[in-house]
Amino acid sequence: MMTLKVNGQDHQIDAKGDTPLLYVLRDDLKLNAAKYGCGLGQCGSCTVMVDGKAVLSCVTPILLLEGRQVTTLEGLGTIERPAPIQRAFMEEQAAQCGYCIAGMMMRAQALLQRNAKPTDEEIRAELALHLCRCGTHMRILRAVHRASQLMDTAELSDKRSAQ
Ligand code: FES
Ligand code: FES
Questions:
Q1: Which tens digit of pLDDT belongs to each residue from 107-154?
Q2: DSSP the chain
Q3: Ligand 1 neighbours (beta carbon < 6 A)
Q4: Among 21, 24, 58, residue to substitute to test ligand 1 (most atoms within 8 Å of Cβ)
Q5: Is the CB of 22 within 6 Å of ligand 2?
């Protein structure tokens, strides 16, 4: 039994330490945004954040996660109140089948948290591992730029309302 912190909540998990995080998220916690693509760390569809960094949950055993904060797409925002990254992907219609999109958004979110204004090249390099079989790469690129603008605007309005 171990405690796993996911999206700000503690969960008691009864699974072997070498169980991949992805299985626990989907099977035990019913958080289905992260997807099983290859199971080998080669496609990016299972990406979540651990302590703010993008991590491939299919190859991350839960024994490494005691005391660390896991964030999934469900933890960023809701349908009623989407986070900037989610709004941007919707506004740019970045998803076609959508299978790759949660992973793309989580890695893009981690990028934007450490680099608020990434260049095209930086976004491309960051998302290079992520496969999109539908080929919506240009829309995804635009969505990440749009998320950066939305985050900027949100930060400005937070600062104004705090004054
Ligand atoms: S399912 Fe994890 S990288 Fe493909
Ligand atoms: S939108 Fe279908 S795999 Fe990317």
A1: 999 999 999 999 999 999 999 999 999 999 999 999 999 999 999 887
A2: -EEEEETTEEEEE-S-TTSBHHHIIIIIS---SS--S-SSSSS-TTEEEETTEEEEGGG-BGGG-TT-EEE-GGGT--SSS--HHHHHHHHTT--SS-TTHHHHHHHHHHHHHH-SS--HHHHHHHHTT---TT--HHHHHHHHHHHHHHHHHHHHHHHHHH-
A3: 36-39, 41-46, 56, 58
A4: 58
A5: no
133 lines ligand 2 (CB under 6 A): yes
Rounded to the nearest angstrom, the distance between the alpha carbon of 130 and the centre of ligand 1 is: 9
Tell me: the pLDDT tens digits for 97-116? 999 999 999 999 999 999 99
The ligand whose atoms approach the alpha carbon of 20 most closely is 1
pLDDT at residue 162 is higher than 90: no
pLDDT tens-digit readout, 13-41? 999 999 999 999 999 999 999 999 999 99
Atom of ligand 1 nearest to the CA of 59: 2
Q: Residue 144 in contact with residue 118, Cβ under 8 Å? A: yes
